[in-house]
Here is the input.
Amino acid sequence: MLELDGQKFSLEQLGRVGRGTEGVRLGAGARARMEASRRTVERIIAEGRVVYGINTGFGKLSERTIALDELRELQLNLVRSHACGLGQALSEEETRAMLLLRANVLALGMSGARPLVAETLVAMLERGVHPIVPEKGSVGASGDLAPLAHLALCCVGEGEAVYGGERLTGAEALRRAGIEPLQLEAKEGLALLNGTQALTAVGGLALERAERAARVADVAGAMSLEALRGLPAAFDERLHLARPHRGQVEVAARLRELLRESELYDADAGAKRRVQDAYSLRCMPQVHGAVRDALGHAREAVEVETGSANDNPLIFAETDEVISGGNFHGAPLALGFDYAAIALVHLGNICERRIDRLTNPDLNEGLPAFLTPQAGVASGFMVTQIAAVALLNECKVLAHPASTDNLPTDGGKEDHVSMGMTAATKLRTIVGNVEYVVAIELLAAAEALEHRQPSSPGQGVRRAHEAVRAHAPRLTRDRSLAPDIERVAEAIRQGDFDL
Here is the structure.
């Protein structure tokens, strides 16, 4: 059970709550902080002070003061008007991650919302009420306004949600789950809408998958090295300590472990082989390691964000102050996701080059053409490499940074935006494509190893070969390999290759 106290989460915790394997509750300390910040809001209203977000309009309309008897209507109208998202709905896992993140921001006690607001989000999470949140419409500054408005719309008994596998009105979903719809008080609509929870959820979950795919690429690369009779000397620890980038050193150590007890280390066998390998084999530590480092940078940004007050304005109850700023700006995340996307294209590129070396009869060190002994009448793995190239073409188009764009919004008031949600959604697509490319390499390398029998590969490579065969049989004659690729890609996502 994860107790929300405004703390940072790891990507793994975010994923577990998203997948419903870890429960959530609101901590007592969080309730006390929320009550204190709520009292500050109520004092401001009682004293007639004009404070942005409490008794003013929003954005370009922030100079307009709102009458006391219109404050509830102001908050409800904010939610309704900002629910302007379009396109495909976020997945259930992504929506659950949004609910978790938004509740945790409120738990920091700097938003001015009553504990009831956070408790409602937690109840929706725990009872399986998943708002329908369209993925398009956020520019990632002033927060993810449109996606979060759809989330908030369900909280007040409007919009739509999925409950028990059925798509319902928000009111009906809450009724069936036994949750009372919120009646928003001053500041609470804004407290639900300002923040980066949509892009953090989508990008954070994609990053968790990306890190797993990067680890599995090490496994696939070790299998390819065995199949292509490569030279493991390139992974010597001394070589990498001479250039000690963290990811490079880690990947070299991982490859040594996967290749432990491989016959490739035999001195006589080495003497009969080439002096050095192609870059796609020799430079795995340098390339895979750089990818790890880039993903680590993005992870750090996400994990800081999970425990950050990123709405506006923030309430500092201890001094009875309200300060307007821009913590909702998604720049740290947008830049991180764009960096991760570029890194994953490098990973996919090097995997594809190894796939080509495994299948191409001009490069594959005496293996059968396209890994079929019936070349000509059979095409074997020919089109798997073509599929990998097609996937990478899409990745390269999507790797263009979203964060370099800017178009002013809200009448020029919001004149610099992050485009962080675009960065997150395209990262998600790139991750899915790279999972497929890694799956293709695993299948091709496993097939190539069959043709090297009775060779003696490393311990980790043997385990990886068995894991592939648990999902896909050997290619004894041509068949559609699409189902095999789908199964192995799903196995990557499920952690079956975390050897």
User: Anything to note?
Assistant: The CA atoms of residues 31 and 379 lie 64 Å apart.
